[in-house]
């Protein structure tokens, strides 16, 4: 069948097992693939231990380094080499959001071709604001598949893999081939950045629901923060368990 041009990556974060479980479940069904696909468990050691990473957050280490002593920095390099020439789906999960959404650096031909076929609430363009993460270095659609450690996240991940493989002609799977319109948001700035030293902060907003000018969106150490301009919140799991990081985004259009 030749060299794979498609890849599915799981467990860049070891405490997000949904992608690995979904790949396992899918391969057990011995799907009839029309083109070769690479299935990659990115950080096996962290996955085995059930930790986000063993030394450092892999998704902040790209492009990595072949000779690095830090595990994740070397793994980031090896993963990028493995993905050269591939159109890639990478699976994640979060602490805060049940509804799957896609993350890309910028919407290009690959996101335009694939995202309308995925069961996702939204496509988020990071515009490099999250980086240096995988989306900044290779043609990849990342998907946040649901709440970390839940059965539902695994179910979502498996469906999204099938949709990706159907959209790319790997699986002839008309059951999942359903083209929908999906809104695109572009990150504008990080919220609470200056307050990152704070001990208590809470968001009062829902992902992708507009926050109007003057509306309160978070409380930090008892102080209420209000929007000075309309934005759409995109909340991300932080690397620390007690905090979330959030971004103000703009609605820029839709795909599909
Ligand atoms: Zn993740």
UniProtKB/TrEMBL annotation:
The UniProt record lists the keyword Zinc: yes
**Mind listing the GO molecular function terms for this protein?**
hydrolase activity; metal ion binding
Q: Which residues form the Succinylglutamate desuccinylase/Aspartoacylase catalytic domain?
A: 4-79
Per UniProt, which keywords does this protein have? Hydrolase, Metal-binding, Zinc
Cross-referenced InterPro entries:
AspA/AstE_fam, AstE_AspA_cat
Please state what the protein is called.
Answer: Succinylglutamate desuccinylase/aspartoacylase family protein
Tell me yes or no: is Protease among this UniProt entry's keywords. Answer: no
Q: Which cofactor does it need?
A: Zn(2+)
């Amino acid at each position: 069948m030749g060299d794979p041009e498609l890849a599915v990556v799981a467990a860049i974060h070891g405490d997000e097992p949904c992608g690995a479980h979904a790949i396992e479940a899918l391969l057990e069904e011995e799907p009839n693939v029309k083109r070769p696909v690479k299935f990659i468990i990115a950080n096996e050691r962290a996955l085995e231990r059930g930790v986000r990473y063993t030394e450092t957050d892999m998704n902040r280490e790209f492009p990595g380094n072949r000779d690095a002593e830090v595990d994740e920095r070397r793994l980031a390099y090896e993963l990028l080499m493995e993905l050269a020439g591939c159109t890639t789906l990478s699976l994640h999960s979060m602490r805060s959001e049940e509804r799957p959404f896609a993350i890309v650096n910028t919407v290009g031909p690959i996101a335009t071709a694939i995202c309308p076929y995925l069961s996702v609430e939204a496509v988020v363009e990071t515009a490099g604001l999250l980086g240096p993460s995988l989306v900044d270095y290779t043609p990849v659609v990342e998907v946040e598949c649901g709440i970390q450690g839940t059965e539902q996240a695994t179910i979502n991940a498996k469906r999204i893999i099938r949709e990706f493989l159907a959209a790319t002609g790997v699986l002839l799977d008309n059951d999942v081939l359903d083209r929908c319109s999906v809104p695109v948001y572009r990150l504008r700035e990080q919220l609470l950045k200056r307050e990152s030293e704070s001990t208590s902060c809470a968001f009062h907003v829902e992902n992708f629901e507009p926050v109007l000018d003057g509306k309160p969106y978070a409380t930090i150490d008892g102080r209420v923060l209000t929007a000075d301009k309309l934005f759409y919140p995109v909340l991300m799991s932080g690397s620390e368990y007690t905090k979330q990081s959030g971004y103000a985004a703009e609605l820029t259009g839709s795909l599909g």
